[in-house]
Amino acid sequence: MRNTNARRTDAGSARLKLIVVIGIVAVVGYCCYLFIPIVYQAYLFKDQMQRNVDVASVQGHDTGWVKNQLTKLAPDYGIPADAVISPVLRDNRMEVRVQFSKPIIFPGYTYNYTFDHTVKSTAFLVFK
């Protein structure tokens, strides 16, 4: 008699463990759903930053052109309007730094994703 009662309670504990594991997987999945697109868009924007400084360096554009191009692209990549875009011409190479902070609201917690990236035009593209 005692063995059958123990088996019935064991089945209930397995169900509870399954519910807990499903809950944890759901929370982690939801957090990834919120976080990954923002990080991916920032990665793509870094690539655009590099492309724009290389084009500006080769074609002889000024720093205002780079800032204008990145400002136009910002909404496509989810960059906030208050982002700081600061292009500089240093040592005959174009350099641009973009800084912004974007809040990611998780259940019960708000994470501030901070983007601060600087790119320089590649040296072999610079004409002296």
Q: How would you sum up this structure, described in words?
A:
The protein is α+β, with helices and mostly antiparallel strands. Helices cover 54% and strands 26% of the residues. It contains 2 helices and 3 strands; from the N terminus they run H-H-E-E-E. It has a 3-stranded antiparallel sheet with strand order 1-2-3, with helices on one face. Strand 1 and strand 2 (93-106) form a beta hairpin.
Note the gap between the termini: 92 Å
The total tally of domains equals 1
Number of helices: 2
Number of strands: 3
**CA-atom Rg in angstroms:** 25 Å
Shape: elongated
Order of helices and strands: HHEEE
Q: What is the mean predicted local confidence, pLDDT?
A: 87
Oligomer kind: single chain
Would you tell me the structural class of the helices and strands? alpha+beta
Helix content: 40-55%
Low-confidence sequence ranges: none
Widest sheet: strand ordering: 1-2-3
Record keyword descriptors for this entry.
128 residues, 3 strands, single chain, three-stranded antiparallel beta sheet, 2 helices, alpha+beta
What layout of secondary structure does this protein have?
Blueprint: H1 2-59, H2 63-73, E1 84-90, E2 93-106, E3 109-120
Antiparallel strand pairs: 1-2, 2-3
Helix pairs in contact: 1-2
